Automatic annotation (TrEMBL):
This is Peptide deformylase. It comes from the Eukaryota. GO terms for molecular function: metal ion binding; peptide deformylase activity. GO terms for biological process: translation. Keywords: Hydrolase, Metal-binding, Protein biosynthesis. It catalyses: N-terminal N-formyl-L-methionyl-[peptide] + H2O = N-terminal L-methionyl-[peptide] + formate. It is an enzyme of class 3 (hydrolase). InterPro entries: Peptide_deformylase, Peptide_deformylase_sf.
Length: 203
């Protein structure tokens, strides 16, 4: 019981610290009961249509951003997502997390896994990410989003991209992503620009 109380107090303190920090950066002063949320924001929330702000260089390794990143990871895993952008928990900052676990292979047929070029992607955190297309060939596959529950659509995506940015420790990171992992990256980068997959789906 005491351990749970301490953990609850610690989380509440961190949440308040992040809220005040975020509010000071981007919002007018005053109390807030808002983000970061422990759930995924849904279409209709204005934050999903905003172009997310860059994280200031001096804040990249701050306790507030570390707490935000951990919250994103927790929510991503809680809802069995393979990627999540900060706006999806109500914070309009350019941060994304991705993870495609090897155990997900069991959820697809071997043929589907192969044709969609799926592959394991270790937990990846990128702050202020940038994406460069390295293969302009597009492929369309069914795509869904935790922010648009209950729907899916065919979405064309580039076959290969170069994703770069800063990790949670402020170190430069660069990844070449192909196939399904390239799709995940493009999907999350869209969120940082206020774009939802329904905007770019096949019509």
């Amino acid at each position: 019981m005491l351990v749970n109380q301490i953990r609850s107090f610690s989380t509440t303190t961190q949440l308040g610290s992040l809220a005040r920090w975020y509010q000071k950066l981007w919002r007018s002063k005053g109390p807030t009961n808002g983000p970061p949320y422990a759930h995924v924001t849904q279409v209709g929330d204005p934050v999903l249509r905003q172009k997310a702000q860059l994280v200031p260089p001096e804040a990249v390794t701050s306790p507030e951003v570390r707490f935000l990143v951990q919250t994103m990871i927790d929510v991503m895993r809680k809802y069995s997502c393979v990627g999540l952008a900060a706006p999806q928990i109500g914070i309009s900052l350019r941060i994304l997390v991705m993870e495609f676990k090897d155990k997900l292979r069991d959820e697809y047929t071997s043929a589907e896994y192969k044709i969609k070029e799926m592959d394991k992607l270790p937990l990846t955190v990128l702050i202020n990410p940038e994406l460069k297309v390295t293969n302009y060939k597009k492929k369309s596959f069914t795509e869904a989003c935790a922010s648009v529950k209950g729907f899916s659509a065919e979405v064309p995506r580039y076959s290969e991209v170069l994703l770069s940015g800063l990790d949670e420790n402020g170190k430069s990171k660069e990844l070449t992503l192909k196939g399904w992992n390239a799709r995940i990256a493009q999907h999350e980068m869209d969120h940082l620009d206020g774009v939802i997959y329904t905007d770019v789906m096949d019509r």
